[in-house]
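Q: I have 155 residues here and want to know how they pack in 3D. Can you give me a structure?
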Amino acid sequence: MNKKSIVYLLVFALVAVACATEAAEEEVTVEDEHDHESTLEQVQERGFLKCGVSGSAVAFSETQADGSVTGIDADYCYAVAAAIDKWVRGNTVNRFGPVREVEKDLVVELAFDSAHESPRHKSGIALRFPRVSRIRWDKPASEADTIETVRKLIG
């Protein structure tokens, strides 16, 4: 697998983790008007990022009357999203519509429940419940695991 596919996988994971579509108490149903749209399309249509916080933990994340979410969890989520956005914009080497190819410098630690082969993905691998565990600003890309490590996990 090439580095470009890894970047797409990482970008997808970042979008999936950072862009919650609704708060837990407002679960999306089959009749939802956004079912046919990707998360990226929903964020673009909405015009802002909804951070994945509960909105019900006073001081940590609390939903206000106007629908905005305040608190340390929300502030942290927005700060991380802003840092990633700044890094992506500053390290873009190619664009494909709303998708950007970036320099292969940022190490993102992913957590996932399982991995298996998938003909639907360019990488040939699908991750079950992928999420960004942490961003390793301190780790050089040369020390990061590769898609080959994931292939070995599959067996």
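Q: Anything worth noting?
A: The helical segments are 3-18, 39-46, 72-90, 147-154. DSSP finds four helices and nine strands in the chain.
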